[in-house]
Amino acid sequence: MQPSDARRTPPDFVQPIPTGPYRGLNPTTKLVIAVAEALVAFTVRGWTGPLAVLLVLATTAVAARLGRRLVPFVIATVPLTASILLVNTFLFPGATDVILRIGPFTPTWSGLEAALQATLRVMAFAMSVAVLVLTTRPDELVADLERRGAPRGVTFVIGATVRTIPRVVQRAGEITDAQRARGLDTQGRLWRRVRGVLPLAAPLIFGSLNEVEELTMALEARAFSAAGRRTTLRVFPDGTGQRQLRWAAALLTAALIVLSIAGRLAFLP
Amino acid sequence: MSWLSRQFSTRVLVLIPIAIAINIVLGYTVQTVLKLPIYLDSIGTILVGVLAGPIAGAVTGAAANLIWQYAPGIGGGSIGPFAITAAVIGFMAGLWGYLGVYRPRPASGARLWGAVVIGVAIILLLASRIYNNPAYTDPNIGGYPDWVFTAAIVIAVVASLSVAAFILIRRDAAGAWVAAAGALTGIVAAIVSAPIAAYVFGGVTGSGTDILVAALRQGGADVYNASLGQGLFSDPIDKTITSFVVFIILASLSSRVLARFPLGERLVRPDTAS
User: Fold this and answer.
1) What's the number of domains chain B is made of?
2) Span B133-142, pLDDT tens digits
3) Cβ under 8 Å to A: B residues 214-253
């Protein structure tokens, strides 16, 4: 679609298969671990769940030498965590253990505790996303899922979405520039910006929808809906150990969720 | 099973990634570039639901939020856990599409004015349900600040005037149906979102609507009711606007294009469908 993009990076299927600690794991293993971490961080309440997950994540991040590339993911959570800390610390319903009074504001200890726990949960979730994204390319994951027999529709939707987003972002930028060159105001007052929605959204939506027909024909011409499995070009290393790790992570997470819902984990801090 | 596989024809599978990209890019543009206090991040979800059916809509909604969360570059934030809400929105859009809510209904005279009255009445009824909701008036649960009520009245009046103008200018009675469908979707979305926001994020989501949550908490509402109050405020407005946007998109596409989708025959005018 964009010849300049094609020249900048080689196509996905000639990229080397990643190696090294954690990075070298099978893409599906890394996905299972990331989902398990996110679920445990959210379902095991209190301090234990988020802190345990963060510990695991810190270990894997060090092993995979992610280092400073995690920083943008931490910064991305700041609006959310700042909001959580402010609203909960100052406006926690029913809390009476006031830390100190600053005019009409009364921060409470129970509010601060809830806020810190929620912040840790969000951090654990964001880091689980970051470690997966920084160690696994989407096309590797899709290729491995397809090799395992995932339905073609599923792998196509995941892969095509990841490829479509940058193209639509680029098109949105081009449309914004084109409309600005024709006098569209994207920085003025509210009403002017409201009027800007239509000249930006309409070409974006209709341009994208026009592609549906072309893509459908192109896929059908290449036997997209033909029955049977296709051969895969790249095979990612996998082993008994990793299979057991995946099952262990899935079963442990399921057990923790059930125990948490049943209220059996209340003894944890 | 043929009912299910019919919703996932090759054409729909091609539409889903584009719809997800529209969700993400338009939502990002409206919220960040134009800095407007609405989301507009479910246009693609509702579009797929209406064109293809409830399950395809639900899949699009859930996949949009999960991929948005995990996509390199634009990922992060708090969107992932709300995949459940997005799935419900897509599912409901599929039901509306199946029921033919989005089919143009050209009308004139008494029928047109009847649609105006019905559309305005539905908006005002929904607004009064929120206005009189015990969660907002009972001092034991809510006790919200006064400006919430003023804002609710202003929004209800503006929304009903817009619906009336839309129906009259387009001479299309379907506007009333679309308004009702959008508002109902928004209410359900708010009810589904509130426990997620309260349980996962302690009630706030890091966006502009947190001010509303803080105001409701100041008034004495607990975490869940503050999230619900905020949701019942923002979601019906957002989903009604989104539904109208989808309606305009569908009306601008040719019958030939629409009819190729699984629910296409329910979206084109009866006189052009032959």
Assistant:
1) 2
2) 555 555 444 4
3) 214, 217-218, 220-223, 245, 249, 252-253
